Amino acid sequence: MELYQLRQFQAAARHKNMTRAAGELCIAQPALSKTIHKLEEEFGAQLFIRNKKGLECTRQGEILLEYADRILALSEDAARAVSESLGDAGEIRLCLRSSAVLVSNVLKDFIHEHPHVSFSISSEPKGCDLLIDSVSSAYDIPDNAHLLMTEEICLAVSSSHPLAHTGHISVEQMMDEKFIDLADTPSYAGVFNSIFSKCKKTPQIAYSCNDYILQGKLISLGLGVSFVASVTWTSSSLPENISLLHIDDCPHFRSIYYQPLGSFCSENQRIFEHQLEEYFKNLNN
């Protein structure tokens, strides 16, 4: 059994299709089929079942895939560790699912100090070294993750809003507001649904966008209101004529954390993690 065989098997299992897997691997489909056949002979077990939907792993195929994922990940970690020992600054693969505005400040400072380190940023954790995400409760943070900050969720309104000077609002008062929805943002949808889950009706969604800058512009023009994370909002270069209102009878918070992924952690990643912690510590102070 060779590493290239495991890579080919892994691709076939992931795509559930020989043609697509062969295309990703840049090899001919018969060559891929031959590799799978050799593995089945070596293990004395059928690894795939072919049906109308494509390929499905057998129980033995699922077992092999679990080990193949681990072996290939360790192989890549070994290569990166040796490369780092030879002076290669390498790449930090970052999964950024939350707090992009704040994390970009850390990235800017880090890249200035370490110009030879590159970053790849994704919204999916698979294949990444580090995950930055948020949850509604600090109790939901994964065991091996590190809490960076907990911040209050407030309602952002235009400074001309009748309640802007009070600094507070109730859920009942929010029922008459026109909301600006952040489309395709699970964390926003979670806050919205949680706050209004006990009510018999929900407020009107006046606008839907997927851009924080546009969200801020619409709020500042008095075209609607929206939920925002308080510290993130006040630390961003967004419109100034916006007031944040505390939600009196249904307070909400979010906890931002980072979580190392995989078994390999480069020295540069450790430095970046330290700078993350220092940056958020200063925000909290």
UniProtKB/TrEMBL annotation:
Gene Ontology CC annotations of this record: protein-DNA complex
Keywords: DNA-binding, Transcription, Transcription regulation
Domain HTH lysR-type: 1-58
Transmembrane regions: none
Any one GO molecular-function label of the UniProt entry: DNA binding
Gene3D superfamilies: 3.40.190.290, Winged helix-like DNA-binding domain superfamily/Winged helix DNA-binding domain
InterPro entries: LysR_HTH_N, LysR_subst-bd, WH-like_DNA-bd_sf, WH_DNA-bd_sf
One Pfam family it belongs to: LysR_substrate
PANTHER family documented for this protein: HTH-TYPE TRANSCRIPTIONAL REGULATOR CYNR, TRANSCRIPTIONAL DUAL REGULATOR HCAR-RELATED
Family: Belongs to the LysR transcriptional regulatory family.
The protein's name: LysR family transcriptional regulator
Organism this protein belongs to: Lachnospira eligens
